[in-house]
Design brief:
The chain is of the alpha+beta class and 268 residues long. It contains eight helices and six strands; from the N terminus they run H-H-H-H-H-H-E-E-E-H-E-E-E-H. It folds into three domains: 73 residues, no CATH class; 51 residues; 114 residues, Double Stranded RNA Binding Domain (2-Layer Sandwich), CATH 3.30.160.270. Strand 5 and strand 6 form a beta hairpin. Helix 5 crosses helix 6 and helix 7 packs parallel to helix 8.
């Protein structure tokens, strides 16, 4: 971006389509399960954010005072229309096009139904919500483990228990387990259904957007033998998001076992 922005001072041309930088960053984040830190240059959430009053005033009067490039140049959508339950197919499809998602008619209808279901849970649906929805619905298609249903009970005088239905390669498995808390009981139930007991090495939860009705995005890292896998899941219910993240990690763990790393003798 430095070469492109200051092309008046250098004669170099890279030929890189810079509008794919942000979408590529989101894709890598989805595949690896590693969140992009907010202060990351160009693609971080704060890259084009201005909090100080003097900065906001300068940007409103003359944007290039504090921004030497526009967000659209790196592929960040500039459309700030907030979608909701009254938004139609055209508005939803237009937003998907802004993100670069090209869905078939069948997949678009599935995505639109999921979008409407999310609108019933949230008053406003933001860009981050739509990205999480698309990634969860289509990027992970063909998973070996799939969550059918989940019910949890917990309280001050009640032992945390989780009952879930898991689709394992087409076979429905229903289990119920208790744990130290609702999240632990969910993980114990999933492990029992899958027949494996990986170690939970890391568990993190973050809000996709602001507000009381915001979606929770859970990231986990699990280990078994010499294999490590990451998983992510999102939902307005943090327990459901945790279950999705753990199942996503199990699918990634299974893939790693089936596709072990091949190391060249020369280290190349």
């Amino acid at each position: 971006m430095a070469l492109k922005v200051r092309n008046d001072l250098n004669p170099y041309i890279t030929g890189i389509n810079t509008k794919n930088i942000y979408p590529c960053s989101k894709l890598v984040s989805t595949v690896t399960g590693v969140n992009v830190q907010p202060n990351k240059a160009i693609v971080g959430a704060n890259a084009f954010a201005h909090e100080a009053g003097i900065h906001q005033d300068g940007v409103l009067k003359q944007r290039n005072t504090y921004e030497i490039m526009e967000a659209s140049e790196v592929g960040i959508p500039s459309n700030h229309i907030v979608l909701g339950k009254h938004s139609g197919r055209h508005a939803f499809k237009d937003r998907l096009n802004d993100f670069g998602y090209k869905l078939s008619e069948d997949k678009f209808e599935i995505a639109f139904v999921k979008f409407k279901e999310l609108c019933d849970k949230k008053k406003y649906v933001f860009d981050e919500d739509i990205e999480a929805l698309i990634n969860e619905e289509f990027v992970r298609s063909g998973d070996f483990y799939k969550l059918n249903s989940l019910a949890c009970s917990s309280g001050t005088d009640e032992k945390p228990t989780a009952k879930l239905s898991l689709n394992i390669d087409g076979q429905i498995i229903v289990v119920e387990e208790s744990g130290d808390g609702p999240i632990d009981s969910v993980f114990q139930s999933i492990c029992k259904a899958a027949g494996i007991t990986p170690k939970l090495d890391s568990y993190n939860v973050a809000s996709v957007t602001g507000g009381m009705d915001a979606q929770a995005e859970v990231s986990v890292i699990i280990k078994e033998d010499n294999h490590t896998a990451r998983g992510k899941g999102s939902s307005t219910d943090v327990i459901v998001a945790s279950a999705k993240a753990f199942i996503n990690a199990l699918n990634n763990l299974r893939w790693r076992k089936l596709h072990p790393k091949i190391v060249s003798p020369k280290g190349i």
